[in-house]
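Appendix C reproduces, verbatim, an entry submitted by the partner laboratory led by Prof. M.T., so that reviewers can inspect both the input and the predicted structure.
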Amino acid sequence: MLGFSYILGALSLASVVSSTAILLPLYSWPEDNSTWSPVYKAAAAHPDILFQVIVNPDSGPGETTYPDDSYIASVAQLNSYSNVEVIGYIPTGYGTRDISSIKTAIATYSNWSSYKAENITISGIFFDEAPRTNDDTLISYMQEVSESAKSSSLPTVVFNPGTKLETGSAAEYFKAADLIVEFENSYSTWTSIVPADEISDTYYDKAAILLYSAPLTADYEAVVHEAQGMGLGAAYLTNGDDYKTADSLSKVAASFVQADGDTVGSSSAGSTLPSAVVSTVASTAVSTVASTAVSTVTVTAVSTVTLTAISTVTVTAVPFQHANAQAK
């Protein structure tokens, strides 16, 4: 029989592995190191949340070897947080852009790691305007740019078609990417659809949503709770429509914490436990209680004890870290 220490271990592991990240397009230009201060504050306040921050100097890395001094200082500040992953923006024109120019942009981002004075290492690539169709040529195109990024020490690859992948194409696209944005639309649109219909089956943990035009008075927590309940890989809401402001970030991060606290069987850092883990924990707890309880304990009482035991387990969150981060 599995011991209760196994139950605690399963809970702890699940809370880390299944966490939904914040995928933040940060397209504003940092005039000085205070421009991105909402991001720094959120990352520092929530070390148990992974922030995947997409930077975009000039619809890509720009033409220079390194960005300017203000951009360097701001990216270095992002890299000082162990729970922040900085990802470079590159558009693909839905698979029509010359692939050699994309590889040049990838090489430029990769070379940022050679800058000596500051840590401006980029940890991955966000391929915007990604194709979604079940077309062998386009699938091969995205596989090639993904491999180019990964072989250039940019291991995290995100595709953004902005909508659900075409039937029959999901397996190949998801094999090439670590995360795919399958829903990028307005907050009002999200609240009017059935979310499960917008994400490819069996790929929830590698899918992301980006919602724009979400008023600061909107119910961010409900969206985050839904994303975590689905087991999505990442989510973000912005009150703007161009990702030029991070005004909503503090509310998004707070919603992650609140939604986590409202989820039975999850830690303050994690998302809903996978059903297999919950089933194992519940059945183990029932067996343990049943084997030690007196004969007068009823099934109802055992169920109550089991649910209470699971819901009151406290799991210490382990802050996210990636290889290119420097601890702050």
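The mean pLDDT is 82. Additional entries are available on request from the coordinating office.
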